[in-house]
Design a protein that fits this description.
It is a single chain. The chain is built from 16 helices and 10 strands. It has a 6-stranded mixed β-sheet, with helices on both faces. A two-stranded antiparallel ribbon has the order 3-4. Strands 7-8 form a two-stranded parallel ribbon. The longest helix has 19 residues. Helix 2 runs parallel beside helix 7 and helix 7 packs antiparallel against helix 8. By secondary structure, it is α/β, with parallel strands linked by helices. It holds the Pfam family DJ-1_PfpI. This is AraC family transcriptional regulator.
Length: 342
Amino acid sequence: MLPFCHEWNSSASGRKDKEHQKTAMHTVAVLIYDSVNPFELAVATEVFGFDRPELNVPWYRFLVCACEPRPIRSSAGFLLTTPYTLEQVEEANTIIIPGSRPGVVPVPETLLASLRKCYQRGARIITLCTATFILAAAGLLDGRCVTTHWAWAAELAARYPRVQVDPKRLYTDDGQILTSAGTAAAIDLSLHVVRQDYGAEVAAAVVRRMVVPPHRDGSQAQYIQTPLLSIREQHEPFGATLEWITANLQEDITVEQMAARAAMSPRTFARRFQATIGTTPYQWLLQQRIALAQRQLETTNKTIERIAACCGFKSAATFRLHFQRLLHVSPQRYRQSFHQAK
């Protein structure tokens, strides 16, 4: 048993409870159960569990909750203890379920019943990696499009034929239920949630603090041939082209122009882009423009029309259409939620 677990939970978490009585608006409960993956538990803890006073926003109230009132053995063999149980889960605003190897340990019916209650009362539920199997067992994924680790996607689809499994996505978000692919995608989905709750600027600050790559959209592929550019490649035509694009988002950029700068044919460039970045040049360009627009909506008083032009959209109407489609909120509503008063 980890000797510090109970002490950390009873002192640090207890202290957080008192601090959050005045400031907390949102409680995040992460579930632990036998054979839970410690990496994904650590991801949730890193993103949601540490106070971040440098951001000047009230951070999440974070609880680690056991599905049974006893020490929980992780998939790595060590034991975890916590004073929090399913009782706290059923009061949380957001529930996070780390993954485990499906079928190794039966999932308690009490856990499944608790998740059903949480869903019925409107709680946001997030599964990391293979925890998608747990929500499927609870009957909460029928008819939904979800993802999981690509190596387990076929088995998830076979076990639960009413669930629409997309093995290509990094993560999915239908508003109340969010699912991620394997391991590192848990970081992407967690940062996506922070971006939803606090905006792009705060999420970018968390990214810098964690020293992880910038935002990856959920539609990007789980598995790509060359996920990162080497130092040498960053200075070659392809890497230099990516830098040029991000520095000139306000321009009318075509795939043909991108390919010419990279000294490739458009077809070769598109193939290289998909293999390296995990999405198409057009989709990546659109994501970069929307990310820039988010930052401008949060930190400037520019009009919607001006922001559209600065981000490379041909009209404010086109900008609003793409912004709504990707973020499920209008630019004006987004600004109302996240604009930083000057």
